[in-house]
Amino acid sequence: MSAQTPPTLLKLAMQALLRDETLNMSALDKLPMVFFTALFKEALTGRHTTTVKAMAAAWPFPCLPVGALLKTPDLETFQAVLAGVDTWLQRKFHPRGKLQVLDLRKKYHEFWSIWAGVEDGDCSVENQDEQQVEKVLPKYALRRHLKVVADLCLRPHVDEEQTCFLQWAQQRKGSIQFWCMKMTIWIQPVHVIKEVLKVFHPEHIQEFELNTEWNIFLLARFAPCLGQMRNLHKLLLAPVSKNIFKIGNRTTDMEDKCINKFISQFSRFNCLQHLSFRRVYFLRNRIKRVLRCLMTPLETLSITHCNISHSDLNYFSECLKLFQLKHLDMKGMGLKALDLMPLQVLLENVADTLQSLDMKCCRMKDSHLIVLIPALSKCSQLAKVSFYCNDFSMPILRNLLQHTANLSKMNVEQYPAPLECYDDFGYVSTERFTQLCAEQIDRLRAIRQPKRIFFATHMCLRCGKCCVYNRRFRPCLCQRRLQ
Ligand SMILES: [Zn+2]
Asked: Which of 98, 174, 289, 366 has the smallest C-beta neighbourhood within 10 Å, fewest atoms?
């Protein structure tokens, strides 16, 4: 008998079972465990909704991580799973134990890997099945109520599957615990989010992304909900268009009060590690207030596309919560008018931890980079840097690269084309650009081996694209037409 025989037999048996859509509960309760997961997967793939429903109702394991198998949306199959869970809830007796967690997150789940071994004919796995499956149950799985875990992305036009799920959840919020680990919001009214948070309690949310067009008054109304997200690991706040948080005709005092109410919620986060703000205008002169509220050291700080003041930057050098940073993203932050000494102090403080630094489009000049070079040369863990779209001359870029000999972990490095590449009208000379970049890379090779190094010009005034040089020259669109 060849090693391939058992799966083939299993497959044949499953096809026979799937053809007979009259599998009833008592038959399923007796179906060997080795068959159960394989048959369920087969039923889902083939959209045998009657079988899917019956199998969900008779699910013999504590965890049903069905989201991992539903990556391609199919409303009928999804509804069949939910209908099966409803039937499961109505059953008074579960002969093989209780379902504790229905996991709808569309990502890999270890459960299916454990059972894949069984389906491939490795019957030794079957004996340990229950113990192993118990082990992959998340810690939060309590025994009393069924828990449904999902990630939610709420957009103005919610897809059919999510609409169906939200309605189902709303009707069962009294009897099932709903946990949303990752919530992303795109342009939704405050009252809609508040309704969703009545079903999915904020304290279970670990990642929260708020892309909104609310003004600061609405943001303050939402603040208490944000404060309840005590277990947040990751937070992103981003208005969808510039300066949207402003209130046109209200007083500054009132605006300030609203902003304070919002910021004060940050002191409630017990385990925040990643904090990102994109185009949040009200951070100027308030960064100190935000950072002082934090309860835990940050791994990621991302404050992009906004202007900060010198007192904001000063606090970067003092804030202990930033001294273990792994990722610092300041792209699009206007630094032209600032003294970067505090940033140099911060870089020295994070020299042993910083892995990525993004300072694209910060409008820095030579005088700014000179200040940062000594500290940058000590950041031994740096794997990715970007300085695209700053105004550096050839000598200062050469100086920077000469000081990077110790950065052995560097994987991706992005530098602006030196100013010497542009003519008086701001147009790039492609010959000069190619020649200077090639020279830089050759010099760098003398001290270390760069892996992925790029030089890019400013955005072309004609086509809006950049010319890029890494191993070869890649022209912008109009240069490409000329060639
Ligand atoms: Zn162009």
From this structure: 174
